[in-house]
Each structure stands twice: as C-alpha cells, then as structure tokens.
Amino acid sequence: MTTNEAPRRVGIFDTTLRDGEQAPGNAMSAEHKLELALRIEALNVDVVEAGFPASSPNDFTATRTIAEALSRAQVATLARARRDDVETAVRAAGTRNHVLQILGTGSDIHLEHKLGITRQQAIDDAVDAARFADSLGVETVSVGIEDATRGDPDYLRQLTERAVEAGARYIPVADTSGCATPEEFGELIAKIREWAPAPVRVGVHCHNDFGLATANAVAGVQAGADDVQVTVGGIGERAGNTAMEEVCALLAYKGEGLGLVTEVDLASIYAVYGLLREVIRLEEPRNKAIFGRYAFGTAAGIHQAGMLRNPATYEYVEPARFGRERTLLISRHSGRAVLRHLLTGLGLEVDADKLDEVYRVYIAERVESDCEDLSVLRGRLEADLVPVLNGGPAT
C-alpha cells in the first residue's frame, strides 16, 4: 500500500445466529436470537445472518422478526438450491435489504456422498435457484460455495461464472472442513476474484479445525475478498468459525500494514459475547484470544515485574480496547515485585528482610490454590500486616 492509498474497508458478515447456532449445544429461541441480532447490529457489522428459514418453524419466525427489527444492517438467510427454499426465505425476510444465500456445492465428495448428484446437476440447481431469487426481486442474490477448498478448479470456475450470469452478486467461499492453509486459501480466493469480478462481492467463510480460521480469512481478504463471515466468540460447527473479535483485533493492530480496516465497535464485542454465553450456557474459556478469562491476566512473577513497570512488556493487545481489564493474580509463581506493589499501595514500606518474610508467609507457603485475585491478598495484608511489621508473628 502506498502512502496515498486509503485502507480498504473489510465488510463483516455475522453468522452467529445461523452457522453458530446450528452447532451442538448452541440452540437459541427466537426471542434470544432477536435480542442478539440487535446487539450484533449495534456493533456496526454489515450483515446479520438470521437463520435458515426452511429448516424449522423457529428459524422462520426468528428470521422474520429479525428482518423487521434491523434498522441498518442487511439481513441474510440460507437456502438450499431449491425454489421452495428460496420462496420460504423470501416469505421470512422479504426482498429489500435481504442477502439470500443459496447453498452451492463445491466438492465431488459432497456431490457424491451427500447429494448424490453430478457436477452439472449442481450447477443447474444453483443457477435455477439464483434466477428464481432474482426474479422475485431479492436485493442481493448470493451463491455460496460449500467445501470449495476441496473442489476441482475447473468445476469451481464453471459454478462461479454461471452463478454470476444468473444474477448472483455475492459469492461466499467456504473452507467448510477447515482443511486449508492460508497460502492455499489465498490462492483459491484470487481465482474466485478473477472469475467473479467487481461489482460482484466475494466473501470468505472459514472453519477452525486446524486453528487457522482467522489466518485463512485474512489471507482471503488480502487476496481480494470483500468481507469475512464470522461468529461472536468463534462458535460454530466442530472447532467453530472465524471469530469476529480475532479478525477485528488483528486488523485494528495490523490493518495499516495490510491496507485493511473494519469499522466494528471493538469495545462492545465482549459484552455481546457475555450475552451469548448466557443464552447458550457456554462455559468461560481460560485462554481464548481476546475473550479468554485470563487473556489479559498473569500469575507469573517475571511477567508481573515487567508489567508493573510497563504493561507493554508482555501485553501487545490492550485489554481496555476490547472492554476488558488486565488482572495480576497471585500464585506460587508470583514474585516479590507484586507484593511490594501491594504494600506500597497500602502506604507501607519494608526492608528486604521483612519483604522476604512477608513473601514466605503470604505467598510461598500460604497460596494453596492455583491462583487468587490480587484484591484477596491485599485485604489479607491490610488486616494482618500491622502486627507483622511490628515484629510479631505472621498469622
């Protein structure tokens, strides 16, 4: 990117309520979906995928309710390459402001073992569904390519070009089984971008089976894709989808060098994640990027000594930017630096020998659990320390 070139805006397409919700353990009521949809829209995402209306009455109702409630973001639906699915999606979400995603099939393994049809049949079905959706006046007709990363390039080209000819203006490309590397996925997106030139938009939809969903998604955008399909917290089938917070965090810190930018409200994503966890009863992870319980916490003395002087010693991603707080925790691995920090905060000064004694009693010998909050030790020191500093026994 040259100094005169503005960063390219990356669209954020949220599929928490569709791909995320369909995974085991993530079921949501229509009421919960609506509440989350409005909170997700408020993050300034571009598209909120409401559901798969033909799959169940709950999805149909939720989609209709969300489509009526959204005020800025587009609503998206999923439909199989069938006219009745397309019609159901339109009845649920209307045509205005609607991204209707028709599910195209990208790999022979899916054609043979899931659908039992030929490549030509798959192309014909996708084309017919796209033309039908276009004839109904759907604002944005989309043909998504499922399992594209295991597809034959010649077939993928035919499917993409025929879909665009039929009226598709958005082509999401899915690494459905999470099998691609960033290099492989970037090369695929570059080809799709060539076969579906602007103004057709290209999206990336990645799964995290190798832990590469964010890396693959960013590689796809660098190769020419226009938006990233994400879920809050990365929920989704198997190992999950590309996590919204990871992509947005990465672009917040590295976007200038990559020439990419998003406009998502970073500071509010964590609160939405909290609501999502409450709705689907999701346990709090300890070490998940951005959202883990201890993503901004440490109990190691060497780390704490550095962070007390300057948090940047071990903290590249700043917690406050994402609605989080850093936490220094006390454990058997904590050192004297954090103890002196607590004592200074209490207005107490001790010499090296007394510090060693306080350390032995209050940390080395007394911390039985893995770790505890700094405030717990502070309260204990505040209550007990006067007799200790006066030369009495530590209790």
From TrEMBL:
GO terms of molecular function: 2-isopropylmalate synthase activity
The entry's keywords: Amino-acid biosynthesis, Branched-chain amino acid biosynthesis, Leucine biosynthesis, Manganese, Transferase
E.C. no: 2.3.3.13
Pathway listed: Amino-acid biosynthesis; L-leucine biosynthesis; L-leucine from 3-methyl-2-oxobutanoate: step 1/4
One annotated GO biological process: L-leucine biosynthetic process
EC class of the enzyme, as a word: transferase
Domain Pyruvate carboxyltransferase, chain residue ranges per copy: 10-270
Transferase recorded as keyword: yes
Family: Belongs to the alpha-IPM synthase/homocitrate synthase family. LeuA type 1 subfamily.
Record PANTHER family: 2-ISOPROPYLMALATE SYNTHASE 1, CHLOROPLASTIC-RELATED (PTHR10277:SF9), HOMOCITRATE SYNTHASE-RELATED (PTHR10277)
Protein's recorded name: 2-isopropylmalate synthase
Originating species: Umezawaea endophytica
